Amino acid sequence: MQEYKNSQELLVEIEKTAKLFIAEFDSLKEEEKNIMVEGVDRSPLQMIAYQLGWLNLIMKWDADEREGKEVITPSPYHNWNQLGGLYDSFYAEYVSYSLDKLIEMFEKAVAEILAWVNTFSEQELFEQDARKWASSTPSRWPVWKWVHINTVAPFKSFRSKIRKWKRQNTLL
């Protein structure tokens, strides 16, 4: 996993990888968003919904903690060993949106996560136990690692998935 020296490096990497990921959707047609292809485990809609779900979820954990609410990760309805159900809830939440609207929502969510990360001090971002929600698993990750795992890492891996999806889709 990539390590960052400061919040600015993390912010730059989030922005860069988000742009590369979402740019892959520019050439897709609306009628293609739900197509599944062999060798790719998600449709284009599901790929964006996954990103939106996690972006919103980690910011919600932090907002809930700041409001004094109990934060149950990953959600009150899903345990860590039930992530498939969590992902299905993300897909269901975004299934009715057009591809253009999903892209717009993704870009807005990325802007929000960048602004949110900017609210943290370097200490809050990089030290363990700065947030209860971030320390709620045995790994006790600092906030930056949660951010990386739910932004940069999936933006990169899902960029590969959408590129493979596009190659496979041309074979249909």
TrEMBL record:
Gene3D superfamilies named in the record: dinb family like domain
Cited InterPro entries: DinB/YfiT-like, DUF1706
Source domain of life: Bacteria
PANTHER family, alphabetized: CLBS_DFSB FAMILY FOUR-HELIX BUNDLE PROTEIN, PTHR40658
Protein's recorded name: ClbS/DfsB family four-helix bundle protein
Originating species: Cohnella boryungensis
